[in-house]
Amino acid sequence: MLKFLLALLIALPSLLEPIRPPEIWATPIPDFEAQHSWDYSLPATEYGAGHRGIDLHLQPGEELTSPFDAVVTFAGKVVDRNLITLRSLTGYKASFEVVCTHLSVGESVLEGEVIGKACDGDLNYQIHCENCVHFSVRTEHGYLNPLLFFGSMRPSHLVS
Prior knowledge:
Strand content: 25-35%
Distance between the termini: 43 Å
CATH superfamily of the domain at 54-142: Glucose Permease (Domain IIA)
CATH architecture of the domain at 54-142: Distorted Sandwich
CATH topology of the domain at 54-142: Glucose Permease (Domain IIA)
Largest sheet: 7 strands, antiparallel
Number of helices: 1
CATH class of the domain at 54-142: Mainly Beta
Oligomer: single chain
């Protein structure tokens, strides 16, 4: 019983934290509604299969802009592809891949500022999707559907 009470006392502050209201961000590409996929799929387990983001339909060389005021937390190559990660002033992290950028870690960007261009991965890169940039959003608690931040979620429905 003592262990339970101790665990409750430790967890209580996090349970009392206010839930952040959803933010509405600027779109990172023109014609966002017509140029993205709806295929976000959170996996059943932390390391399970899923699609932890959406795909933005872009040709190589097309520009992306920051959806919010941010700081660059990563810009560079991961294995065989370039990506950039931005941290919003409220703590959300948004990553875009495959994106080539001129920005460096620690630089600030404003909402609507160009953050990079869609580009190709290395020769051995397994193409995620044809002519697209993968866009994901996460917090310290895990991944979120990026569409939550653009007011474009479709209503849920039961599937039998």
